[in-house]
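Lab notes, practical 5.
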Amino acid sequence: MPRLSVEDLSFAYRDRRVLHGITFSVGAGEILGLVGPNGCGKTTLIRCIDGMLTPGGGRVRLDGREIRSMHRREVAQAMAYVPQSAGNRTSATVFETVLMGRRPYLNWTVSREDEEKVIAALDLLDLGDLALRKIAELSGGERQRVMIARALVQETGAILLDEPTSNLDICHQMAAMEVLSGLAGEKGLSIVVALHDLNLAATYCHRLMVMKAGAIYGYGTPDEVLTEEMLRSVYGIEAVVKRDLEAPYMIPVRSGRPGEGV
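Output from the prediction step:
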């Protein structure tokens, strides 16, 4: 049984249909990359899976249980969510922000074990030196790494990440994806991550789901999905796809007609 499954999911903002019959599953230890042009529905899909938005149809299951039948605290103990951007209007420190990831397990006090988990997550994301800094004082990339650390201390079986590398430099992009890849393998996490960088997605994701105009255009391994025809049809670019390394990668040549999106 897959840890996370989405079946025939649809969603609309009033009379504007945004998602059309989305179906996929993610097993333990697997990273699924959501890719596609701006406005294709990636963020809406992630919010529907997390329960922040209520789908107009279809089902989302975690370990066989429907999300809508679970209490919000149960969902938080089973699945973590990293938003596209982290707010900076707070006086909380980095340590306090990451500690919030332990909320699904806390009663009245914070244990030494909770604090140690926070310290470990900060060290893993190279944030130890920033532990006592205010979130408002950090750069966008530093705040993004804090949000990833907060998700890790939730110790869930599944993690949803909405463009977690968008504000990071190339070194920290790779470092963050290496952390997620390592945890997927070591702890059997099921990870769904929306990414703009196709080469990054092809390097670290086991499978890719290409979205176009709120529907699934392609689904499979990076080798199966990353093709010149897909890039032309979905992204509206001419590109060369090279396969001389462990993972395929694309080299853009010129832009064409932008891919349609919602």
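Observations recorded by the TA: Residues 4-255 form a domain with the Rossmann fold fold (CATH 3.40.50.300). The radius of gyration is 18 Å.
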